[in-house]
Amino acid sequence: MTDTSARTRTLRAVVADDDVFTASMVASALRSTGIEATQATTADEAWTTILEVEPNAIVTDLDFGGGGTGAELLWRVHRELPWVGLVVLTSHLSPELAVGDDALPPSAVYLVKSQVKDVDVLVRAVDAAIVGGEHRSEEPAGDVRTVTRSQAEVLRLVASGASTRRIAAERGTSVRAVETILGRLYTALGVDADEQANPRVTAARMWQQGRVRIR
To answer: Burial letters for 148-187: b for 16+ Cβ neighbours within 10 Å, e otherwise?
Structure first.
């Protein structure tokens, strides 16, 4: 357990998530331990808030549903404010599922929302990010499926509502090739395309629930 009474100074954190409820919950949890937490719902708003608040750490989602990504925000903080601790709090077991091939700063502490069972897990991650120490996440429980990087990119597009034709255009390939990839993706996810009324919906739900990782 984290001994918040042992803190010798008040820590400040910026919480960034495009879901207002999630941002509020995380910020409230941090405040309950004595950390001053300020919320933001876009990457741009988070950066402005960081400059105003001068936090010790940021806790950010990766996918803001448009505009700047959490990865871009993390890199900007890493370059311009390297003393600020970086914590990722996302639904996805693999960052590529949220931000494609964008890498994350090596100092970022990675947390999966489903693994944060209590506030102590979050506080330990913030502390580790600030001091640059190691923080190990627990292995995920439940039914987790593994996909390739190529399948993960297609899954991201499926989850965004992209049609097969649009996916083909995005990837510079044929509709038939995408249909083949989709078939292999559904197999990897354990989705029976013949029995499911809409395998796209099932696949997208698994993506949203953080039940997919990249090998």
So the answer is: eeebbbbbbbbbeebebeebbeeeeeeeeebeebbeebbe
Q: Residue 147: enclosing H or E segment and its boundaries?
A: strand 145-147
Q: Which of 107, 153, 159 is nearest to 133 (CA)?
A: 107
Contact 76, 47 (CB under 8 A): yes
Provide the 8-state DSSP code for 114: G
Q: Give the phi and the psi of residue 117 in degrees, each rounded to 5.
A: -85, -25
Residue 126 has pLDDT above 70, yes or no: yes
Distance CA(85)–CA(30), nearest Å, equals 15
pLDDT at 105 over 90: no
* Pair 104, 88: CB distance under 8 Å: yes
Check residue 51 and report its DSSP letter.
Answer: H
The pLDDT, as a whole number, for residue 2 is 46
Q: Would you say 81 and 50 are in contact if contact means Cβ atoms under 8 Å apart? A: yes
CA distance 108 to 199: 34
Report angle CA 170, 173, 174 to the nearest 5 degrees. 115
204, 97 in Cβ contact below 8 A? no
